[in-house]
Design a protein that fits this description.
Elements: E1 11-16, H1 20-33, E2 36-42, H2 45-55, E3 59-62, H3 71-81, E4 86-91, H4 96-104, E5 109-112, H5 117-128, E6 133-134, H6 136-145, H7 150-162, H8 166-176, H9 181-188, H10 192-206, H11 211-220
Parallel strand pairs: 1-2, 1-3, 3-4, 4-5, 5-6
Helix pairs in contact: 2-3, 8-10, 8-11, 9-10
Organism: Streptomyces endophyticus
Protein name: Response regulator transcription factor
Keywords: DNA-binding, Phosphoprotein, Transcription, Transcription regulation
Length: about 220
């Protein structure tokens, strides 16, 4: 996804929603941003997977409740078969079970249709750049709802983070703050390839699947306070 830093490079987006009016509205919002290009639209999850494989967009923006194949299952297939495509969910539903499954399936963004248009654009830009983005309205549900008591989770998170090197903890804190790899590289005066290697090492050592799950660990370990 480093190509997104090229001047004039537009973020290529796949929209998937079974309601044509929603697709039109989201498309209009992205068009107003000036740096997005909707390369394909899907009316169901199965079509979304096929179009993602065909067009290989930077971001697949998926509704959850769609016919033939729901957005959560589609997200899992896209992340497994089109690794260069970031997945973000755009939905009216913020129940913990949906959020947990989406993140567990590889999505790095979770946005609500009721959110501000600027939030939508910021979220798509973030996941396209390799960062994670949660709607503020669901962030608290994610922190509090992924199992166990809060104190137990905090202790477990601190123990996991304690196994990281000082530099890895520093990188984890910036991932938790929502920074992309280029932004972390700029902040720490490192080359982007080095940051990418640090992020990969952090995800592996924390035994998490993506940056959102790493950000949750960072939050619970107190790195963001």
């Amino acid at each position: 996804m480093g190509a997104l830093s090229e001047p004039g490079r537009r973020i290529r987006v796949l929209l998937a929603d079974d309601e044509a009016m929603i697709r039109a509205g989201v498309g209009a919002i992205l068009a107003a941003g000036g740096d997005f290009e909707v390369v394909a639209e899907a009316a169901d999850g199965r079509e979304a997977v096929c179009l993602a494989q065909a067009h290989r967009p930077d971001v697949a923006l998926l509704d959850i409740r769609m016919p033939r194949l729901d957005g959560l299952a589609a997200a899992e297939e896209i992340t497994a078969t089109v690794p260069g495509t970031a997945v973000a969910m755009l939905t009216t539903f913020s129940e913990d079970a949906y959020v947990a499954r989406a993140l567990g399936g590889g999505a790095t963004g979770f946005l609500l249709k009721s959110g501000d248009p600027h939030e939508l654009m910021a979220g798509v830009r973030a996941v396209a750049g390799g960062a994670a983005f949660l709607s503020p309205k669901v962030a608290r549900h994610v922190i509090d709802g992924l199992g166990g008591g809060r104190l137990t989770r905090e202790a477990a998170a601190r123990q996991r983070v304690g196994a990281l090197t000082p530099r890895e903890r520093e990188v984890l804190g910036l991932v938790g703050a929502g920074l992309s790899n280029p932004e972390i590289a700029d902040r720490l005066h490192l080359v982007e390839g080095t940051v990418k290697a640090y992020v990969s090492a952090v995800l592996e050592r924390l035994e998490v699947k993506n940056r959102v799950q790493a950000a949750i660990v960072a939050y619970e370990a107190g790195l963001l306070t």
